[in-house]
Fold:
Amino acid sequence: MQSLPVFLRLQGRAVILTGKGEAADAKRRLLERAGARIVGEAEEAALAIVSDGDEPTVARLQARGILVNATDRPELCDFTLPAIVDREPVLIAIGTGGASAGLAKALRQRIEALLPARLGALATALYDARSAIRARWPAAAARRRAIDAGLAAGGPIDPLSDKAADAVPDWLAGGADVDASRLEVVRLLSADPDDLTLRAARLLGEADRVYHAPDVPAAILDRARADAARIEALAPPARPGEGLSLWLERVP
Structure:
């Protein structure tokens, strides 16, 4: 991973924008949508966008310790601007590290077609229900498992359903407790993460801990949840622990 994706709160904050023309206009619209206060090169700011990719301008700004995006000059950029799928407050950013804006755009269009317009309403409903969710599942691990089950494909609040936002109260009222402990076995046919089955990819995204044989490659383990424990072992655990655990092994 060459860059760390982050979401910056720019409301009311100064961002330098230089250059003119269509590229500058597009960046100005984007910054205005984010609530940024657009200023010129001489003013103080933490971020800058050089819309014409002018190298001397980039150098001057970087010399001041300002993080710079230079349009169409990925080799000069401290950060890049992703293609955005906006379902406020849900934002999905697609970046290619500046390699191909066209590819990012194509992926955005595909994702746009998949996500319902009311996805943001689901996020808001879950936010508003935080106290009720904590009361329904007081233990953090149980709460996480219940939310994962509710949001799973075909679940009562499946995020790809247009009706999910309206289903949150019924989910809270009738949501069943999820099994406290379970171990799933995933047998890998190759070392390539692109060869993971849909089931394996889903389990990696949900597991609390991942037990794995020594020959399981890091590229596969990187598909697990960032906060999941990764435990190398020679055999599946007898007592995997509470929540969902996986045992990963390569098929000879």
Observations:
- The CA atoms of residues 212 and 232 lie 5 Å apart.
- The mean pLDDT is 93.
- Residues 14-81 form one domain.
- The radius of gyration is 22 Å.
